[in-house]
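ping. complex inputs:
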Amino acid sequence: MKKDLGVMTAVFPMPVLMIGTYDENGKVDVMNAAWGQICDEDKIFLSIDEGHKTYANFKVSKAFTVALADKAHVAVADYFGIASGNRTADKFERTGCRAVKSDKVNAPIIEEFPLVMECELLEFVKTDHVSGVVGKIVNVKAEESALDESGKVDPKKLNALCFDTFQHGYYAIGEQVAKAWNAGAGLMKKE
Amino acid sequence: MKKDLGVMTAVFPMPVLMIGTYDENGKVDVMNAAWGQICDEDKIFLSIDEGHKTYANFKVSKAFTVALADKAHVAVADYFGIASGNRTADKFERTGCRAVKSDKVNAPIIEEFPLVMECELLEFVKTDHVSGVVGKIVNVKAEESALDESGKVDPKKLNALCFDTFQHGYYAIGEQVAKAWNAGAGLMKKE
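pong. complex structure:
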């Protein structure tokens, strides 16, 4: 029996995305964004409003990185979500994280996070109901420790965080339940 | 040391969203979509292209539901992703799932899934790089079994699936690592 809960942001799980940008002085900023998702095979859409330092940086640098926060760095990842680059001049510095410039785009890569998408800004999207940016994923980098023997990213080794907006918790990933295109194959037979 | 992996849809985790719609004859269709995310406090954005039966249904019914697929129904959820409503007339029927009409919007609620967002179609978004729809979340319904004592959705009881596009696996959620606004509080002190 289902119960009415009213209006809420009930997508679960959400990723814990670390958006890395340079400001007009080449200063590193990182923000924590859950409202981002792939929107095409080589593109990512981020719902970020104009008030953010990151948004201003998009206009200047025309590029950004999107890293996946992992278990080992949950405190830093959470801090990047609660501190403001507009109010805290040393927001990034006080984390002790190390940033290097991407060799693919004009944006910083935060070394502590295990996987990063290097993105070129394609478009600012502003419609009646959507505000955000689209980035073209020109390359993905990941720590060798997050890869399996075949060189593919292994979610179990990645230790990326899952976010929930019901209780505002960060979660680890659990066991693999099934493989896609395999679990539902039985129902396909008659097609 | 990070390794270059090329272009890939590296957002992780992705949700396993079950998009429920009625076609022009009031027939139920459900599709599995990973490329969806909250885009505002009461809105969801889905990147779905025009080729899908679901997209045609959006135009007719002007509403949809978005349910979270859970562990117990991984086979059905996967099937909704591999079968096509355009090619398989009895796509929904052959799953044995039960659908009831939402009391809030003109879209079906699939009883088997533990949580559902009832959405009114707000806008078709078509820009240079984005194609999809925005829905207004008018209500969320969840099974009592997915709620904690205080009546909030409990991710550990929800058993919602996480999807990965690295290995195309469905995963269960693991333990809670930390609470948001708490994990990073130490770094805020000096602000």
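Chain B has a mean pLDDT of 96.
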